[in-house]
Amino acid sequence: MNAKRPSLYSLTSMMVMLTLLLSACGGGVVTATEAPAPEATGTLSVLEWAGYDAEDFWVDFKNAYPDVTVNFEIGISDADIYSKMAAGNQADVFHPYSGWLQFYVDEGLVEEIDTSKLTNWDKVSESHKKLGQINGKQYFIPWDIGFTSILYRTDKIPEGVDSWAALMDPKYAGHISMWDDGPGAVTISSYIHGYDETAITDEQLAAIQEEWIAQRDLNLFYWAGEPELQEGMRSGDVWVAYAWQGSYALLLGEGVPVAYANPKEGRNSWVGFYGIRKGTENLDLALKFLDAKLAEATGNNVVNLFYYGHSNQDVMNSVTDPMLIEAFGLNDPSILEKTNFTPNLTAEQRDAWTSMWAEVKAAP
Amino acid sequence: MTTTPSPSLPHFPEKMGEGDQRSGGGRGWGLDRRATFWMLYLPPLLWLGAFFLIPLLLMFAYSFRPDMRGDFFQLWQPSLNQYEKLVSTGSYWRLLWTSAQMALLISVISVVMSYPIAYFLAFHGRQRVGFYLVLLLVPFWTSYLLRVMAWKMMLGTEGVINSFLLYINIIQEPLTALLYNRNAVVITLIYVWIPFATLPILAALQRIDIALFEAAADLGARPFHQFIRITLPLSLPGVFAAFFMVFIPTVGEYVTPLLVGGSRGSMYGNIIQDFFTKAANWPFGSAMSMIMLAGTLILVAIAARLINLRDLLE
After folding, report:
1. Does residue A263 lie in a domain region?
2. Superfamily assignment of B81-313 in CATH?
3. Helices (H), chain A
4. How high is the pLDDT of residue A89?
5. Do B157 and A181 lie within an 8 Å CB cutoff?
6. pLDDT tens digits, residue range B181-195?
7. Which has the least CB within 10 A, A152, A182, B132, B162?
8. Residue A117 DSSP one-character state
9. Per the CB < 8 Å rule, is B43 touching A14?
10. Which of B99 and A339 is assigned the larger pLDDT?
């Protein structure tokens, strides 16, 4: 008998401690939801990519609402951000990219945006606004914009690169670096072979898989984060790579002899968006955050610090740095005609293409 | 010790063991043994339950989901889709086998290389053994990622090894075979594991009664024979502990291959990680994890049966 009482005590005290802990955690959420948005205090949580959590990239919001605490959680890929949101992540705002929008809407994870509440909305071009619409409704606001193309070392490849097929050219064996991404690989193969990216057949996907398994022997490493790619380019190990323009501008600025190809199949272009989680109690604050994301100081930082485009046209029109003009292709009025926009993936394509890529990496 | 009670012993445990502890515990804390047991074991049990067992069960459940759609806690119709797909994809099985082979190679080399270190610490460290242990553990003061990154600087085309070989004119062109392949993964992981593998071997060696060596010497055994007949057999539990400590996590390793493995260096763990972070396909990643878990357990069970760990530990 005596034996039971103390253990019951310890169990009870453990439960009390656990309850205390849990209620302490809950307390934070309560203050967040209780905070009335009009006074603009409280907490906003953002599921963001590493780097964009720096204050430079939400400086307008910080200045306008200094009393609001913004918490960032980092996602490492579109898939990561999507699966976190699908699993019930409580972030108020999240940052998906081209291609990865449709399922948020299909699965009811994203709130339609009342653009009348966004004071900077009229500075966004119609074509970019349209990219954030799904089923005719504005679920996402466009924010950062960039190209994907082939980045190459001009000292190692003086003849230049004019096709996406360079990533599979045996001439560059051991000096190629592809992005570690299945949908990205399908996109490139589609450009090279003229497949319709939105309607890849099973046979085409099988051919694409074979093509990338063969490419693997030429590829030095698949890069996951841009710093990894930049280091490879800098050291001279990588001569030719799948790359975003931010890496191009950064390396160019450092004096590394690199060029950004204009492949005959066209560059690829992508847009980053912000969405608001459906059912958030912080809707007003989230809208204010999105509006401030479109403001000029924030946009200028995206352009000047990360060398990406911004959806606010005033920001882009004020770019004068020749290196940036070159990087954005602002001096080439036909560049957009030669550019392929990334279509939205369906859930089936996402699963099939990512599986294809896993099998490429696992192939013996 | 207590497995084979001889007829003369029954009084012993009651007097000195159980009875003694019970009265001692009672006096000091006013708690009996069972309460003390729960006080001590409940926190780690809760911790492991909440952060190990429940996630593992969730993953098990997730592996029977047909796809990612639907809320996390929403009920779904269990499906064997993921396992069917996994069974039909030969490359994943081959990769699991390759990963197990790599893990075997890495654990054997790590243990063989750790043994002399442990031996030195146990028998020749003397008063400085604490200092040497600190030296052994110094690498842990640096982040694991940084240490692996350092290997990139060692093995790269402009790295330390290549620069040195170029400098002394042994090679004219930098060697590209050092980095971004499976060898680089093996080399780096052996380095990472050596300090870990040393500790259980050291613990086993330190338990050996010095008197045994004296007795062996008195009976004319030479140092080599002492090692083969006494030291090695008595240290085997530590050796096997070290082996499994290296083998099991290495089968599922993914960070090191990601950093130094290159295009062809992926291990099974990398593919699991990809399904979670790059493919938004948790059900398939979970199924792959379950297969790896089962595979590793089976291998360990077979090994344990072959080696008969219980005999060794007694």
Report:
1. yes
2. MetI-like (1.10.3720.10)
3. 4-34, 59-64, 78-86, 102-106, 126-131, 182-193, 202-216, 226-235, 245-254, 283-293, 296-306, 313-317, 322-328, 347-362
4. 93
5. no
6. 999 999 999 999 999
7. B132
8. G
9. yes
10. B99
* Pair of tokens at residue A94: 């999240």
Which residue in chain B is spatially nearest to A353 when comparing CA positions? B279
Query: Cβ B156–A237 below 8 Å, yes or no?
Result: yes
Identify the closest residue of chain B to A84 by CA–CA distance.
B280
Mean pLDDT of the residues in chain B: 86
**Residue bearing tokens 């205390």:** A20
Within 8 A of B69 by CB-CB distance, chain A residues are 86, 107, 347
In terms of pLDDT, which residue wins out, B2 or A74?
A74
Q: Is the pLDDT of residue A17 over 90?
A: no
User: pLDDT tens digits, residue range B155-174?
Assistant: 888 889 999 999 999 888 88
Assign A112 to helix, strand or coil: coil
Q: What whole-number percentage of chain B has pLDDT above 70?
A: 87
> Rounded to 5 degrees, what are φ and ψ at A312?
-75, 115
- Write the pLDDT tens digit of every residue in A195-248: 999 999 999 999 999 999 999 999 999 999 899 999 999 989 999 999 998 899
Cβ–Cβ contact A357 with B under 8 A: yes
Q: What angle do CA B287, B288, B292 make, to 5 degrees?
A: 115
| Residues A116 and A263 reside in one and the same domain | no
Alpha carbons B79 and B100: distance in angstroms, whole number: 28
| Cβ contacts of A346 within 8 Å, gap of 6 or more | A102, A103
How many independent structural domains does chain A possess?
2
A220 lies in a domain?
A: yes
Domain boundaries, chain B: 21-62, 81-313
- H-run or E-run covering B311: helix B309-313
Q: Could you tell me the pTM of the whole model?
A: 0.84
Pairing mode, strands A42-49 and A68-75? parallel
Interface contact B39-A354, CB threshold 8 A? no
What's the CATH code of the domain at A82? 3.40.190.10
Q: For residue B312, name the pLDDT band (cuts at 50, 70, 90).
A: low
> In chain A, positions 51-80, which contact chain B (CB-CB < 8 Å)?
76-80
On whether both A276 and A352 belong to a single domain, the answer is no
CA distance B98 to chain A (A): 9
* CB-CB neighbors (< 8 A) of A7 in chain B: 34-35, 38-39
Q: A4 in a domain, yes or no?
A: no
Same domain, A223 and A348: yes
Same-domain check for residues A223 and A274: no
In chain A, residues with a C-beta closer than 8 Å to the C-beta of B39 are 6-7, 10
Q: Quick one: pLDDT band at residue B28, thresholds 50, 70, 90?
A: low
pLDDT of residue A2: 36
Domain span at A302? 36-145+270-329
Q: Which residues contact B108 (CB under 8 A, 6 or more apart)?
A: B243
